[in-house]
């Protein structure tokens, strides 16, 4: 694997040219190899050993195996770019607020889904620049599907790789569905705040028309919006920045948006806590969505 050297004192041009298809393909490769580490445990261990962390979230050997591999691979690829992983010690805000660019990873997003063996778990790797995710890869180990996207200076791309076929992806217009009397399709978490989601769906139905609701795990929900298979993912309840960053980079590269309740983009590394506020993932029609969803 080639080494890409980054320095905070490097040229302005290099700082922005870092985000490109070459780098994205290397991160897809890293995510796939990490997924092999996960699947070795998923397929061979009959009874998973689960540790409960301090925040009551589960941890398995698969989380750790993926974490160690990705951390080593990114350190080799870009030795001077810092890394934050869900499974590493979080640097204090005084240190990381000075980072103009860093990697943000969730080595196994959807550990509960991994434990229940429903296949809805992912490997998430994102590059954050100036508080925004500018490159992201979400790989689905069980199906061997990759979602990827980046927003560069001259080029923005989002695509999906399945069965060795790469296809560009883009968000769709919920407004067009409403105008054509089609249901607004909502995806939501299987484990969090079902009543709040139901209340929102009732509001959409009253205002726009019919809705349909699908529950699933991990960052796949954001990816469904990115590929135009869903219109809205509302998240009420706790998530951390590593849960959302990679998929946000993809959905934004695909033409979508991730908005907080005040209608502004979800941003990263802005405070000491890495917990996200409630947010909404949408496709096109941002102004129409803002009127409906945001304070």
Instruction: Indicate the low-confidence ranges by residue numbers.
Output: 5-17
Shape: globular
How big is the Rg? 19 Å
Neighbour order of strands in the largest sheet = 3-4-5-6-7-8-9
Largest beta-sheet details: 7 strands, mixed
Please describe what this structure looks like.
- There is one protein chain.
- By secondary structure, the chain is α+β, with helices and mostly antiparallel strands.
- Helices cover 36% and strands 25% of the residues.
- The chain contains ten helices and 14 strands.
- It has helices at 12-17, 21-44, 61-77, 93-96, 111-116, 174-179, 194-207, 220-226, 241-253, 286-293, and strands spanning 51-52, 58-59, 83-85, 101-109, 122-129, 132-140, 145-151, 156-162, 165-168, 184-189, 211-216, 232-235, 257-260, 279-282.
- The strands form four sheets. The protein has a seven-stranded mixed beta sheet with strand order 3-4-5-6-7-8-9, with helices on both faces. Strands 12-14-13 form a three-stranded antiparallel beta sheet, with helices on both faces.
- β10, α7 and β11 form a beta-alpha-beta unit.
- The radius of gyration is 19 Å and the shape is globular.
- The relative contact order is 0.14.
- The model is unreliable at 5-17 (pLDDT under 50).
């Amino acid at each position: 694997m080639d080494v890409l050297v980054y320095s905070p004192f490097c040229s302005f041009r290099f700082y922005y040219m870092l985000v490109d298809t070459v780098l994205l393909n290397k991160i897809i490769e890293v995510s796939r190899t990490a997924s092999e580490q996960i699947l070795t445990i998923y397929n061979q261990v009959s009874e998973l050993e689960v540790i409960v962390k301090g925040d009551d979230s589960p941890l398995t050997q698969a989380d750790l195996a993926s974490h160690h591999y990705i951390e080593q691979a990114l350190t080799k690829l870009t030795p001077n770019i810092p890394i934050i992983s869900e499974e590493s010690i979080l640097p204090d805000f005084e240190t990381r607020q000075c980072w103009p660019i860093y990697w943000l990873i969730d080595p196994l997003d959807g550990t509960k889904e991994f434990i229940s063996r429903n296949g809805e778990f992912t490997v998430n790797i994102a590059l954050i620049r100036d508080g925004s995710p500018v490159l992201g890869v979400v790989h689905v180990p069980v199906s061997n599907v990759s979602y990827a996207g980046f927003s560069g200076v001259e080029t923005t791309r989002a695509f999906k790789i399945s069965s060795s076929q790469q296809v560009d992806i883009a968000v769709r217009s919920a407004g067009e569905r409403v105008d054509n009397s089609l249901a607004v399709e909502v995806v939501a978490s299987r484990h969090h705040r079902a009543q709040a989601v139901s209340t929102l769906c009732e509001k959409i139905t009253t205002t726009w028309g019919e809705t349909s609701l699908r529950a699933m795990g991990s960052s796949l929900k954001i990816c469904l919006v990115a590929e135009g298979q869903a219109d809205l993912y509302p998240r009420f309840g706790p998530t951390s920045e590593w849960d959302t960053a990679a998929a946000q980079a993809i959905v934004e590269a695909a033409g979508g948006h991730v908005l907080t309740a005040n209608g502004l983009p979800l941003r990263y590394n802005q405070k000491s806590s890495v917990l996200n506020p409630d947010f909404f993932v949408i496709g096109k029609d941002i102004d129409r969505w803002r009127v409906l969803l945001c304070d």
